[in-house]
Design a protein that fits this description.
By secondary structure, chain A is α+β, with helices and mostly antiparallel strands. In chain A, 35% of the residues lie in helices and 25% in strands. The first copy, chain A, has 3 domains: 2-84, Rossmann fold (3-Layer(aba) Sandwich), CATH 3.40.50.20; 103-165, ATP-grasp fold, A domain (Dna Ligase, domain 1, 2-Layer Sandwich); 169-361, 2-Layer Sandwich (D-amino Acid Aminotransferase, Chain A, domain 1), CATH 3.30.470.20. Chain A has helices spanning 2-9, 23-27, 39-46, 61-69, 78-85, 87-96, 110-120, 144-156, 212-228, 262-266, 271-279, 308-317, 346-361; strands at residues 14-17, 30-33, 104-107, 124-128, 138-141, 161-165, 169-179, 185-187, 191-196, 199-205, 233-242, 247-253, 293-300, 322-325, 335-343. Chain A is globular. Chain A binds chain B through residues 1, 3-4, 6-10, 12, 25-29, 31, 186, 264-265, 268-269, 277, 282-286, 288, 290-291, 307, 311-312, 315-316, 319-327, 337, 342, and chain B through 1, 3-4, 6-10, 12, 25-29, 31, 186, 264-265, 268-269, 277, 282-286, 288, 290-291, 307, 311-312, 315-316, 319-327, 337, 342.
Chain lengths: 366, 366
């Protein structure tokens, strides 16, 4: 999804992809094949690049450091990426900055979890500090016995954990900002995200009914994190909102993020364009939305292997739909595309986006 | 510019380009090199394509016919393309359909031009029936002596001419429609185009102050042409508007057209997306604009060979600009990019788009 923005800006992308079947290879001419943990492959790939950036956070620190040592700008840099890679580092740093995190503790043994629950009550949340994604690596545990099972199992696999209060949130928000090396930043409208089984299903931009003070606070949190952690490129701060309106930081992503896919069709400058502008230290573009409201629904693979008939039906049913398909093989639970609808009426936009996403995955057939 | 639309729709493009340095090669992985008049190259390229379409009209008829004979859908087909390739055929057919063309005549000798001028008065316009582009192949002649010089010179080169009344237009308009093989069509807002030395400089969408009846008439003309000529894909009808508001057909283009570049950033469905949808017989997308007004300014090469510093300046000056650069070497008079601004106030949008286009080409430096 970076390629359309690169084409318009006149930038040439080179991609390192682990698998020649990766969807990036279908749309970008200059592709190198190699795993991001393969130092030689990464250095060979990076030769001649003006800047290296990422679409996920799973590049090992030693590879990042070796890249930096070559003198090629790496944006965001390893010093920032650490906080997107390691949730314990993130919690420690954000707490230090006085930003609103749920009560938390590193977990060396079940006693640490018990001590947290003593203060917060059960349930609590256990998280792998590294490598989680789309709900993987997160366990909500109701009592000490359940916590012990997760902790023992993680110890057996060498996985480090932290424990957090289970925030009694009423909804989840995402605040996205772009920041460039010379410190310019722009903040996108704060959106509401709807997750199901740990996977983002829908995004509403802006978050319906959000009070201006809360939206400004979410943007302030994201801008503060971007600045203090020296983030370059797009930063998404995923937040919990509790019934009293307060905001709690959940996760960070230092890259274009699913909660910003609506910006491709719905904003003057998409998150992909602003990510590219930021990592190249170009001036950033306006994050202003085109319409009062955008609803984005992910198409999550189910059991319909051939999207084409459904795609035809959806295009015919609704000429205002923006359907994006990723060229990925359909697997249950895999994000294979998304749909965006712009408009003014929430119920109308949401019905249209939901219908198309459900139809495309084969959940409904009328 | 077709590639971003193809990526979003999940379509894979294969391009036949005459020169390995063509800008399409920079952004599309699957490129074949060959000239569109090279039958073997075209047939080899087309093997395995679901449909073949065009970004210019200069594919010879025998190549088109051979392509059609292979059974691969060619859209628009040779029967339609003829009217975009040959202005005499176009004038004859549109006159037959009762559509408003300037008075015209084929020119076999200077006597034909003189006979037309007898009826219309001087000046008249002489046009090469084939191969013209961006003002090339068009001569406005003030008297018979001037007409004779053009006619003799054309005869010497074997170029066929027609003669037309010089329409005393007050502005130029363009009406774009997309039409699919099964006959669905959508009409974009009618725009005003501003030419200088035969080259399009600016486009205003919609045409400022256009009366609804005139806009509807322009759309009716374009939809009629698309249907009667069996056009598939995008059709642009370039029109003259005279002081009495009347419309006169100037030229046809059967492809995405410069007058529709504003739709990339300014419409729910860009002309490139609707061209792809149309030639694949997919349902068409909404042509609705995102904003009350869009102004597009072409960046015409002058003597600034390195765009980058100007590009930086323009991005910094105006975060709402959509700058598109084409990856072409800068040559005087060559379209090397365009700029689009969306908004509500004409003077504001026009000033911003004009400033950026002039700065990018090196015409101004502040």
């Amino acid at each position: 999804m970076m390629q359309p923005a690169a084409i318009a800006l006149g930038l040439r992308l080179r991609v390192l992809s682990a698998d020649p079947q990766d969807c990036a290879n279908q749309v970008i001419p200059d592709v190198a094949t190699g795993h991001p943990s393969d130092l030689e492959a990464v250095l060979e790939f990076a030769r001649g690049c003006d800047v290296v950036t990422f679409e996920h956070e799973h590049v090992p620190a030693d590879v990042l450091d070796a890249l930096v040592a070559t003198g090629i700008p790496v944006r965001p840099g390893p010093g920032a990426l650490l906080y997107a890679q390691d949730k314990a580092e993130m919690r420690a740093r954000l707490s230090e900055l006085g930003l609103p995190c749920p009560e938390w503790t590193p977990v060396a043994s079940a006693a640490d979890a018990a001590a947290l629950a003593e203060s917060t009550g059960w349930p609590i949340v256990l998280k792998a500090t590294r490598g989680g994604y789309d709900g993987r690596g997160v366990w909500v545990v109701d009592d000490l016995a359940a916590a012990e099972r997760v902790i023992d199992e993680a110890a057996g696999r060498g996985v480090k954990l932290l424990a957090e209060a289970a925030v009694p949130f009423v909804r989840e928000l995402s605040a996205q900002v772009a920041r460039s090396p010379h410190g310019q930043a722009v903040a996108y409208p704060v959106v509401e995200t709807v997750q199901k089984e740990g996977i983002c299903r829908e995004v509403y931009a802006p978050a319906p009914g959000i009070e201006e003070a809360h939206a400004l606070e979410a943007q302030r949190i994201a801008l503060t994190i971007a600045k203090e952690l020296d983030v370059t490129g797009m930063l998404a701060v995923e937040l919990f909102q509790t019934a009293d309106g307060r905001l709690w930081i959940n996760e960070l992503a230092m890259r274009p993020h699913n909660s910003g896919h609506w910006t491709i069709d719905g904003a003057v400058t998409s998150q992909f364009e602003n990510h590219l502008r930021a990592v190249l230290d170009l001036p950033l573009g306006s994050p202003a939305p085109h319409a009062p409201l955008a609803v984005m629904a992910n198409v999550i693979g189910l059991d319909l292997p051939d999207l084409y008939p459904a795609y035809l039906h959806c295009l015919a049913r609704d000429p205002g739909l923006k359907i994006h398909t990723y060229g990925k093989a359909v697997k249950p639970g895999r994000k294979i595309g998304h749909v965006t609808v712009l408009g003014e009426d929430f119920e109308d936009c949401a019905e249209r986006a939901r219908h198309a996403a459900a139809y495309l995955r084969g959940e409904i057939d009328e």
